[in-house]
């Protein structure tokens, strides 16, 4: 069974080298790699061309965002399974082998692995992994899995893009990536994919390593593009629609309310208008707010005494951002 690994590239000439090393080190041999340069202004395209071979294909497009680049890769992919992979990130060497084996006996499910965040290479090798059992597990109920992931128990989590291995047939059923730029484009996409599946199969013992740039520049709360952030609000609404269309769930509203609550807090005070929109939507659900850590001990005390807006303002001015 062929696996297509689709990697968008944008100004990552140096960091994507470690990604390719992990791809070429996979113990699963039946792979093709599709590198899609998304209009880079550095030497990413030239670096990618050095890997070109009979199983590594290099494409180039005008800058349109990672979601469009993934669709560009899907257009030529021949694999029975699709592995999406972000440049700079790293796959454990047996990740694809184990997940293909799992899906061969459960072909209408989606495979998922644990992930570990890292900034330096040394953090990859230290062998200490966070406990993600509360939100990464096997399930025959994709709706319940998503509701739990999105915060119905009071804890908001996410699963990084590279953790999944997806049968190509499920992507064709669910639809390709939405052609927009959004910090939660993978949340929208995998919501559709999971709801089109028969469930999730967790593959313990194999890992995805998710690179966090120094200072956390790639975090949603640090994004400043208003259009992208408005698309995140749209994504929450879309995920709500998908879950409602799938069927009734006792904690569906709680999960979606938690998404709006988190967004309202993250966007304050830098995007007060968007924060206010999300807050109004949260209040409309009439759900209890989830338990969130807004900062250190002092910030948590301020939040308890004066509310989350005051705590966010204090944190903002103390940090200077």
What would your notes on this structure say?
With 321 residues, this protein is an alpha/beta fold. It has helices at residues 16-24, 44-49, 66-76, 95-104, 121-125, 142-149, 168-174, 185-195, 226-246, 252-266, 272-285, 297-306, 308-319; strands at 3-9, 31-38, 56-61, 81-84, 90-91, 110-118, 164-167, 200-211. Strands 3-2-1-4-7-6-8-5 form an eight-stranded mixed sheet, with helices on both faces. Helix 2 links the parallel strand 2 and strand 3. Helix 7 crosses helix 8 (185-195), helix 8 (185-195) packs parallel to helix 9 (226-246) and helix 9 (226-246) runs antiparallel to helix 10. The model has no long low-confidence stretch (mean pLDDT 94).
Q: How many β strands by DSSP?
A: 8
User: Overall 3D geometry?
Assistant: globular
SSE string, helices as H and strands as E:
EHEHEHEEHEHHEHHEHHHHH
Name the average pLDDT. 94
**What composes the largest sheet?**
8 strands, mixed
User: Strand fraction band?
Assistant: 15-25%
Tally of contiguous helical segments: 13
- In percent, how helical is the residue content? 40-55%
The class by helix and strand makeup works out as alpha/beta
**Low-confidence runs of at least 5 consecutive residues:** none
| Gyration radius, rounded | 20 Å
Q: Widest sheet: strand order?
A: 3-2-1-4-7-6-8-5
State the end-to-end CA separation. Answer: 49 Å
